[in-house]
Amino acid sequence: MVQAQALKQGDTLLELENVHMYFGKVAALAGVDIQVKKGEIHSIIGPNGAGKTVMMNCINGLYSPQKGTIRYKGQPINQLKPHLRAKLGISRTFQKIELFGGMSVLDNIRLGRHIHMKSGILSGSFYLGKTKKEEIENRQFIEEEIIDLLEIESIRDKTVHMLPYGLQKRVELGRALALDPELLLLDEPLAGLNLEEVEDMARFILDINEEERWKVTCILVEHDMGVVMDISHSVFVLNFGNRIVDGTPAEVQGNPEVVKAYLGEEDLYSTRR
Amino acid sequence: MSGSQIEITKDLTIPKLFLRQCRKYGKDKVAMREKEFGIWRPFTWQDYYENVKYLALGMMELGLKPGDKVSMIGDNRPEGLWAEMATLCAGGTAVWLFQDCMMDEVKYIIDHSDTKFFVGEGQEEVDKALSIKGECPKLEKVLWDDPKGMRNYHQDFLVSMNKVQELGKEADRRDPELFEKTIEKGHGDDVCLLFYTSGTTSLPKGALLSHWNMLTMGRNLMAVDPCYDTDDFVSYLPFAWIGEQMMSISCGLQIGYTLNFPEEPETAQENIREIGPHVMFAPPRLYEGYTRQVQVKYIDATWIKRKIYELGTKVGYKVANLRFEKQRVPAYLSIFHWLAYLLMQKKLKDHLGMSRLRHAYTGGAAMGPDHFRFFHALGVNLKQIYGQTEIAGISIVHRDGDVKFDTVGTPIPETEVKITEDGEIISKSPSVFLGYYKNEKATEETLVDGWLYSGDKGFIDEDGHLVVFDRSKDVMTLNDGRPFSPQYLETRLKFSPYISEAWVIGHERDFVTAVMCIDYSVVGKWADEKKLNYTSYMELSQKPQVCDLVQAQIEEANKDIPGPAKIHKFVNLYKVFDADDEELTRTSKLRRAFVEKRYEDIVRGLYGDDETVHMDTTITYEDGREQRIKTDLHIRKINV
Asked: Quick one: which of B125, B98, B118 has its CA closest to B164?
């Protein structure tokens, strides 16, 4: 088990070193290196099939790369199961919503808090002192920190599958935050949202990244170049499992290889608008 | 305790009364509640006192002088009310802006009112202030209370309410009597509110109201319908609307009832149900919304529930009609009525949050008789209020047991109402305003010898009730000289759950026509059930089946409409009228002159021989994006 250690802003929080991931003969990731600094929003962009989601899945433990090392706070985590990585503070949302449709918004978010529950089965069965105290603390955290932040007061008791897509995306972010993460993996959080919802979501991501209360490091996989270039500190460009460039938004936008590989000859900003 | 027991003198001001009530109730009574983080959080009168005191002293520290204007914008929340009360305590004048005001309106009001301090809720409101700061040189400080998203704002003139209150605490330590002394200086004739009236035709005018105006109005309303300090009131309509000021400030303070603020505007309906208010005042639009909600639920309900509802309302309507006619309800009907109450009304009223409701008022615009009857059939004591911002909100109200749905009631105490030779309604009372701010000409036209000229036409009927015609410019005549009232027709049409807005045309024309806006969610649901495909409001509105549906609604309404006013042709509009597009005022009144100009092609189509109108127009969204709209609107003829 990795010992938690305090990192300063700007220290390396997560590192992928020469990571290879094959599906049969197909190389989804062919020796990827990336360093994610604490406190930044690090975006990963690339055309469809470039391996972005595979990278996310390797980081949170859904996939085990055949080669290479993944270090979190300096310690290798390759061998850890996803739930143990979650315990370390790595949380994520999914490209296709993976919520429990039949449950309420509140219950879905509560589920993300489960990992922090310490009281035992006996205490839980009879709702004894310890469980009760924990429940109240968790509810307070969810209400004051998450529901208020994401402005979902009006839907807290609604069943998830009844909600419009944009709100479901928000609930999924809420569940990821319930874990109180240090590193948040956001897999296409803006896909399928309308303009107003995109603006809201971008604002939430900035809040989570910048607010004193949260200060969460984010890895963002996203196709909306306008938002990516606006809010990211660094942008990593992936194509067929290879890194093309990793730098500031300005560096990436100016890189001719990126323009050619990812966007053809078009302007980087032309995907939306 | 009822409000009429408080003695209102010329020396009394709202802050003096505030101080008196805070001393009386102190820590023992809840003054207001706000739902936050899913819980109702109470504030006692002592909390109210402290928050207002430090805020007022802090604002004075920042340079607020008596007579200075403070503009406020934001959702209904305790902080908003504290800021208003603090302004009044410091001797300032409060100005409220509608939360959804467009930028040029905000700029006009801030500039015209000579606002010195701007109080916004959070980032959104602060952004509004920042964007106009350069053009409003008199604006000195911008205050805010919600820290969310404010971490990157460092301008010197931005001050958080916490910071202001800290300044206030320091000032209080230096001079512990300063707050009370400042309040003592006030006089009932001082200006307390500068309220901008939403003009249907021209730029907003700023009405100046004194403490005396506001307090006497509250006293006189409470003399008619007493309230008690154990009552609950839900404050969720914009503070910029005089009706909300009247209930939250004038009446609220005199009675000492508890104000409840919803969690978010979207949760208001749910929160009203949780509180179950005793008194309610809302514009017709809200009651229309309730009616629609019930009608839609009825359509969705199971067979047995529908039957019970039908029987319940039938009995309800019978009893309500007898009561309207002031006839005795026979014993057998009373028993049925009691059954209807048990089986249907009780449950339904609970769902609408109306279980404990003693008085429900509507005002601000005309309300159709159908809606009126609907609520009385449900056992809700809905009454009309008539008044203007210029008379502190109210001059006329229905009395219990004397409700006539085509009138607005009789004058409240100390109020005289007369009809001029031209048929204009004029009134005189202690609540008549002081004049318009920086607009001598309009003041002279409106205030003559202490009489307030309303611009409304009407007459007093045999029972002494006032009947208000539409705004005089809205009474229309057909080419053959027969008059008709478009507003009346529109309210009739809007009783259908499928119709959200209607615009009736026909002035100086051969016959009456209408432009209809369907209710997207209700018609959308209806279309789902009929397996009709659609992708947008525009497409849905032009489906032949939807046109049939709307036609059926109009034919139904036409049955009760007198000959000349029957609607001959209609068209479904491709969008809903919107205040952001200047088609409606902020209080949801239709701006006829504007829509007539904007949709002149449609009007021409309605009075031509074509069966379609081609629309090719560009709409601009709030964020500046533009979209070109190209569509054909179908014109339907109705056999009358």
From this structure: B118
Domains and CATH numbers, chain A: 12-89+181-273 (3.40.50.300), 101-178 (no CATH)
From chain A, the residues in CB contact with B268 under 8 A are none
Beta strand residue intervals within chain A, DSSP E:
12-23, 26-37, 41-45, 67-72, 75-76, 90-92, 183-187, 217-221, 234-239, 242-247
Measured in angstroms, the CA of B33 and the nearest CA of chain A are apart by: 17
- Parallel, antiparallel, or unpaired: how do β-strands A41-45 and A234-239 relate? parallel
Quick: pLDDT tens for A147-187. Answer: 999 999 999 999 999 898 999 999 999 999 999 999 999 99
A interface residues, B as partner, C-beta within 8 Å: 140, 143-144, 147-149, 151, 153-154, 156, 195-196, 199, 203, 207, 210-212
Work out the minimum CA distance from B266 to partner chain A, whole angstroms: 6
Q: Using CB atoms, which residue from A143, A195, A212 is nearest to B38?
A: A143
* Cβ-nearest to A211 among B151, B266, B623: B151
pTM, entire model: 0.86
Phi-psi region of A68 (alpha: psi -120 to 50; beta: other; left: phi over 0): left
Which residues neighbour B245 within 8 Å (Cβ) at sequence distance 6 or greater?
Answer: B96, B193, B195, B214, B239, B393
| Residue B149 C-alpha, separation from nearest chain A C-alpha, in angstroms | 7
pLDDT tens, B303-360?
999 999 999 999 999 999 999 888 999 999 999 999 999 999 999 999 999 999 999 9
CB neighbour list of residue B351: distance below 8 Å, 6 or more residues apart = B273
CA distance A85 to B126: 41
Domains contained in chain B, CATH given:
3-277 (3.40.50.12780), 282-355+357-471 (3.40.50.12780), 475-637 (3.30.300.30)
